[in-house]
TrEMBL record, chains A, B:
Native organism taxonomy: Bacteria, Pseudomonadati, Pseudomonadota, Alphaproteobacteria, Hyphomicrobiales
Pfam family of the protein (one): Peptidase_M24
Biological source species: Ancylobacter defluvii
Annotated signal sequence range: none
Residue intervals of the Peptidase M24 domain: 161-365
Protein name, UniProt field: Xaa-Pro dipeptidase
PANTHER family: AMINOPEPTIDASE, XAA-PRO AMINOPEPTIDASE P-RELATED
Creatinase N-terminal domain segment(s): 13-152
InterPro entries hit by this protein: Creatin/AminoP/Spt16_N (IPR029149), Creatinase/aminopeptidase-like (IPR036005), Creatinase_N (IPR000587), Pept_M24 (IPR000994), Peptidase_M24B (IPR050659)
Length: 385, 385
């Protein structure tokens, strides 16, 4: 077993969760989010694509039910000692096996918190879970309980977040060195992701966003690469990822002479990002950060070109997305605290003129404000080679 | 809009689904699997990390409900014309908006097939969906309906699968050129994934598996890279990915002199893979392929070192996994057909001696058997540089 955190750190995390469970009067938790399992025990896998669950009882005991392919994965990467296996078969009933496991650990008639809001628990499996536990125990939706605890990072986590920030900057440098007329997007993507792997980093929680020409207006990954034109725009969103901790960045780089519209949008994006940065501080809400962004954008007459959200928390995330709660959207009351890692992305997409301009940076919330984790100049990247 | 398939191809796919819906007496489908949306319309995004759904009515009309970040993504990548947006807010109710959309399209009191078994529909959102549609329409679990259609590939799909196969071989070559004493796993990963990006390929549906020394016994990705020792073993599982179509391979490569146990396990793995290949043919079941694998493994006294599954179907898959049904496990009655793409992986993990040996190849099921899509020699890779 090789863990990325000290035993003391894992003990602290478990105790924080046990306290939150006691407050909610939960006798146990059934976790389905890989993020929760990684945070609590180190268990590191994409095995959540199948049915699996981590139990934590109020007595502090962990137990994992998973498939045979993840037995050694749990042994090598986590502190979980009690690992049980369900087997694929036409008539396999892993939800019943989970109930039996919980019974074995004294969970009959218990009040059990369940992470229903989890990619690791599809709606189909959720129904089977409910059926298997019907009359056996009370299942209570405890989605978000661990997310809330995970949002504030410890010193040990911040160490990895800083590494992720450095890898994000390495990837940015690799991109800037390559971007130019005639260059293939695929080469840029290889260089960016390669810089992160070579630096000991991980796959990101979602694909890097890369799109040029009209597709620079997209803010998701899509299949199909192209070569950059002599005058072009390319939107990139990426994250340095280390021990699954993310530090994200976003830029729209210009090849050849920028259009006036690029410069107008960039100026608004920079002002909006600065306004967000001024509000990323303890005591401010996620909604206030969004409002700061919207005020600048809308003041520049760009209301129809911005999105309904302008960033989110980052942490140790698994696929399909590196986005963690809280998100910067209108009225979100979640209060920022020191130790939170927040990504602010200014996304401007003018479909009429097919002009894109994006700018994003990651910040660590500190006692008196924030500290940039991806410190690169806020200048429009123009490559006229 | 730039589609990766012809209009005729998309028409054929829609008609196949409409026929299957008619057979199941469904008036409409609510799809939550990104794979279904991509296959039917081209819609290419990781936006399924949030609530979104694609409607197909028995009248052949599509409509998508998604977030603002995916509006242009749907416009640029899919043939969907009716795109509706729900907005993030503390009190947002996208499931009700979905019901209103379906009402608008004539779906009141309809019998609607729902993809409940989908990463895009968490158990929490499934409950909200059921509540929103209660008394409005009948929701019927139609998980797997599109998966079943997707399993058999068309000529247009096989074109991309072949590209994926070539990219898998390119990645293999990049790895073999690098593997040796003192080499960092991160450099190997960068070279393999880089070969695929440079060739116009995509991120895989799950992370490549890379692990050496004791961690060569793992068959999932984990964070944390190391350098290879003078005598070492490294297990790699990867997929060439093109237009999201996968062709997977697996090898355990040896650095320095192999142990006798490596050679024993390799010989069994090769025989088992050959036995599977002899059974990957039209009319055979997925269970028969598994049985062929198990017979060889168990005949060599390796029953406790093999897994309970030895492969699966491959296609256009999104995160968190590239695995598609059917899977090769005991008794699986799914019958193989021409046009199916099947990955067979022989995984032997001897924990006692900490010896790993894996071998995997992808096959296209043809009219009279199969054709290897990742044709590389079945020899033990030994690098004694």
């Amino acid at each position: 077993m090789s863990l990325h955190f000290t035993t003391l750190e894992f003990e602290r995390r478990k105790n924080r969760l046990l306290a939150a469970m006691a407050e909610r009067q939960l006798d146990g938790m059934l976790m389905f989010q890989q993020e929760s399992m990684y945070w609590l025990t180190g268990y590191d896998t994409f095995g959540f694509c199948f049915f699996q669950s981590l139990w934590l009882g109020a007595d502090g005991r962990f137990a994992l039910l998973t498939r045979s392919a993840d037995l050694r994965q749990a042994q090598h990467t986590s502190l979980i000692e009690d690992i049980r296996i369900w087997r694929d078969a036409a008539d396999s009933t892993p939800q019943q096996q989970l109930r039996d496991m919980v019974a074995d650990l004294g969970g009959a008639h218990a009040r059990i918190g369940v992470e229903y809001d989890s990619y690791g628990l599809t709606a189909a499996n959720g129904r089977k879970l409910d059926a298997a536990f019907d009359g056996f125990a009370i299942l209570d939706d405890a989605s978000g309980l661990v997310d809330y605890l995970r949002a504030v990072k410890s010193e040990e986590e911040i160490f990895y977040v800083r590494k992720a920030g450095q890898l994000a900057l390495d990837a940015r440098q690799a991109a800037i060195e390559l971007i130019g007329a005639g260059v293939d997007e695929g080469d840029i993507l290889a260089a960016m992701q390669g810089a992160i792997f070579k630096g000991g980093g991980d796959y990101p929680g979602n694909e890097f966003i890369i799109g040029s020409a009209r597709d620079a207006l997209l803010c998701r990954y899509k299949s199909g690469r192209r070569r950059l034109d002599a005058r072009d725009q390319i939107t990139l969103e990426w994250a340095g990822t280390y021990r699954h901790y993310h530090a994200a960045m976003m830029e729209t780089a210009i090849v050849g002479r920028p259009r006036d519209r690029h410069i107008d949008l960039f100026n608004a994006a920079r002002l909006a990002l600065e306004a967000c940065a001024a509000n990323i501080a303890p005591g401010r809400t996620a909604g206030e950060v969004f409002a700061a962004h919207a005020q600048v954008m809308d003041g520049h007459g760009l209301a129809e070109h911005r999105l309904a959200a302008c960033g989110y928390s980052l942490g140790a995330k698994f696929t399909p997305s590196w986005m963690d709660p809280p998100m910067f959207y209108e009225g979100n009351p979640w209060v920022l605290e020191p130790g939170m890692v927040m990504f602010a992305h200014m996304i401007l997409m003018d479909s009429e003129t097919e002009t894109a301009m994006c700018l994003g940076r990651t910040f660590l919330v500190t006692i008196n404000g924030n500290e940039p984790l991806t410190g690169a100049p806020l200048d429009l990247i123009v490559n006229s080679r």
